[in-house]
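Input structure tokens:
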């Protein structure tokens, strides 16, 4: 891949500068390059895919309650299935399905409404009984379960392989991947950015796209564009190799607690969103959080509670006030676009969002109307997006 450490400075000019070298930035670069844009620079403060995209396994699903999220997820699922041909990479996609475990009547009613909406949009979700949930995932205890929601076409893949696949294809088309390069500011004229300033030189440019994930609010501040994104640490753990091997199970989520688990190589992966986790950029893995997970699964999946673990991982969610993405073109700075704030859904929506931002850059009508996901929705009097299927 063409990477800027080969050069003493970044390129002097670009048609498009993309800030952020994770799955979102590389997807946007690939789709622009595929459309014929040749002078693209991706600016990444570290290595590609080492921020929020660095997690070892990412869920991919269209199982949402908001029509926009369903469309973004469904379109992206098709792209993930086609990834070996376009752009051309094995991403270890495993369509094991998603399984949401529901413990209240209200949860069951909300998910049933979501399934009806999904079905109307061509997504094969379904409501199932606690007993069928246990047949799909033998670890599950049915005690206290009211129902479950199953989406058989969903699953998980490897974000690092997706980033590499997009980046390599973009680089083959001439995209410069400026790693180890930090944005320090912008030059402006009127309501437009004329150059991106970095610690390795200026890049004169026509368009800037912010795909900086958890760091997007800082980039927005430099550009004078409010992007309400806050960083929140999320942690995972891996079991030791299991003997006998774990059965092939869905990506299983206890919806009330957000505890989840699924296959990972020769063991299982455990995760849980700690509601007491403060905002911040700390990505230190702290084994103590595992006790929260174990406390939940002692009741919901008892066999998991005593499984030994062999380390884990901590990364950052990029969270917005309504837990939905920010996608669009700034109303303050005409040539500043953004795709950020996905609140845990960025990896699974990256293929579709890459297409959409490509079209916004080229003044085309996108395949999905993302007008309701503009950052301006948080201004006084604007509505927020509803999404109940948040993990």
């Amino acid at each position: 891949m063409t990477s800027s450490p080969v050069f003493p400075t970044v390129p002097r000019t670009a048609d498009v500068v993309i800030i952020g070298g994770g799955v979102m930035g590389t997807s946007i670069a690939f789709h622009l390059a595929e459309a014929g844009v040749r002078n693209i620079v991706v600016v990444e403060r570290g290595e590609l895919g080492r921020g929020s995209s660095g997690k070892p396994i990412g869920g991919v699903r269209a199982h949402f309650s908001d029509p926009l999220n369903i469309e973004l997820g469904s379109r992206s699922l098709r792209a993930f299935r086609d990834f070996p041909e376009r752009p051309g990479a094995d991403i270890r996609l495993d369509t094991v399905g998603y399984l949401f475990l529901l413990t209240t009547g209200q949860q069951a009613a909300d998910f049933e409404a979501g399934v009806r909406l999904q079905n109307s949009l061509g997504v094969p979700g379904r409501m199932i009984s606690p007993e069928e949930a246990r047949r799909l995932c033998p670890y599950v205890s049915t005690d206290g379960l009211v129902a479950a929601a199953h989406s058989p076409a969903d699953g998980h893949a490897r974000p690092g392989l997706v980033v590499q696949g997009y980046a390599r294809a973009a680089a083959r088309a001439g995209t410069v991947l400026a790693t180890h390069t930090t944005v320090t500011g912008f030059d402006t004229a009127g309501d437009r950015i004329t150059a991106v300033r970095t610690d390795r030189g200026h890049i004169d440019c026509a368009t800037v796209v912010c795909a900086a994930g958890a760091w997007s609010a800082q980039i927005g501040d430099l550009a004078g564009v409010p992007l309400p994104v806050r960083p929140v640490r999320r942690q995972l753990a891996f079991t030791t190799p299991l003997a006998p091997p774990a059965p092939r199970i869905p990506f299983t989520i206890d919806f009330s607690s957000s505890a989840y688990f699924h296959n990972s190589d020769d063991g299982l992966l455990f995760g849980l969103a700690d509601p007491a986790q403060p905002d911040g950029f700390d990505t230190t893995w702290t084994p103590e959080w595992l006790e929260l997970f174990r406390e939940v699964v002692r009741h919901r999946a008892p066999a998991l509670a005593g499984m030994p673990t062999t380390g884990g991982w901590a990364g950052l969610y990029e969270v917005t006030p309504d837990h939905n993405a920010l996608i669009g073109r700034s109303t303050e700075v005409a040539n500043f676009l953004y795709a950020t704030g996905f609140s845990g859904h960025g990896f699974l929506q990256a293929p579709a969002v890459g297409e959409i931002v490509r079209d916004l850059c080229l003044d085309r009508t996108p395949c999905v109307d993302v007008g309701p996901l503009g950052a301006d929705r948080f201004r006084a009097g604007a509505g927020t997006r509803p999404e109940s299927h948040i993990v």
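The CA atoms of residues 95 and 155 lie 4 Å apart. The longest helix spans residues 105-120.
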